[in-house]
Amino acid sequence: MMEFTVVRDGEVVSEPGQDLASPAGFLRSIGSGAYTAAGVSRRRSRRRRDDGLSRMEFWLPLWDEHVYRLGHSLTRLFPDSDQVKDGDVVREAARASVSALLRHEMNQEGSREATTNHDVGAAEPEEGFTHMVTVALRPGPGPSSPLACFAHLYPLRPESRATTASVLLSEFRRISPEAKSCAWATDRRPLEVDLARRGAMLAGGLSEVVMCTERGMLLEGTKSNVFVVVEDDRGGGGLNPKRRLLTPPLSSGILPGLARAAVIATAAALGIAVEERQVDSKDCTGWSECFLTSAVKMAQPVAAVAVPAGGSGA
């Protein structure tokens, strides 16, 4: 059984039910609220404790961006609530929840001290992400009540860190793309059930659903954004003068993922052309690559695409 930790309003839940074991189950239990999810790595710090023993710390990249997105989602989901309009309050609520979560994890391992490194410039641990942390906030029950805060720490299984993805195309779209809503964990459940059912019939299984329009235009994954790579004479130069990245535009109703933004910025810095435009799944034979991005798995190449019989795409 995989161990997980849940924090509610700064306090560790002593005996959380197994329905909260997965990040999706945790979000479904909250119902109404905004959330953000990130990959974190546990590593031994170069610094030592006072007793000379090595100290453990967590590396959590893009922390400021996660907090900003959390606040943005709150204002979109609860526009009439004054509780969510103070960015400092949102930041402190998120920090306190994550700190309590990680401190408990360190104490479980017998460490007396835990540190959280939010420095994006820090060197990434070689083993990659070891855990997934999910933070959710919502307004309290009364106008003067503090924000209700929830946090969840989930150890990533080895198979969840697979280097490639196999995706299923499905006609579906997010209801509220302008915000990361806890309700999305419930909205996407039919897709996850279909993914598991169809994946069980394939030797390699399936790992993600990529949603598309009724015309087969790619949108996004249920937990990721999607990019395709084409090589032609319209490239922007840089490392590969013929290579272009294509990704669906935000105007198509997709979530503005943090990893998606990082890829676009990095490609621009390297001189690789990026076009945010409609991407037709029927053109897949002309792609040289396809990959998914998320704050938990970062960039993950797509090895196979499954299209339901009679579905859109190729």
Question: Would you summarize the structure shown here?
Answer:
With 314 residues, the chain is an alpha+beta fold. Helices cover 23% and strands 30% of the residues.
What are the salient characteristics of this protein?
314 residues; alpha+beta; eight-stranded mixed beta sheet; seven-stranded mixed beta sheet; 30% strand
Structure report:
This protein is an alpha+beta fold and 314 residues long. 23% of the residues lie in helices and 30% in strands. It has six helices and 15 strands. The chain has helices at residues 23-30, 63-77, 87-108, 184-187, 189-199, 258-269; strands at 5-8, 11-12, 34-48, 54-59, 115-117, 131-138, 148-155, 165-171, 208-212, 218-221, 225-231, 243-247, 273-276, 289-294, 298-306. The strands form two sheets. The chain has an eight-stranded mixed sheet with strand order 10-9-8-15-14-11-12-13. Strand 14 and strand 15 (298-306) form a beta hairpin. The longest helix has 22 residues, at 87-108. 37% of the residues are buried. Mean pLDDT is 85; it is low at 111-126.
**Can you count the beta strands?**
15
Main structural class = alpha+beta
The proportion of strand residues reads 25-35%
Radius of gyration: 20 Å
Q: Give average pLDDT, whole number.
A: 85
Which overall shape is indicated by the principal axes computed on the Cα atoms?
Answer: globular
Number of helices: 6
Helicity level: 10-25%
Low-confidence stretches: 111-126
Between the first and last Cα atoms, what is the distance in angstroms?
A: 39 Å
Largest sheet: 8 strands, mixed
Element pattern in H and E:
EEHEEHHEEEEHHEEEEHEEE
Strand order, sheet with most strands: 10-9-8-15-14-11-12-13
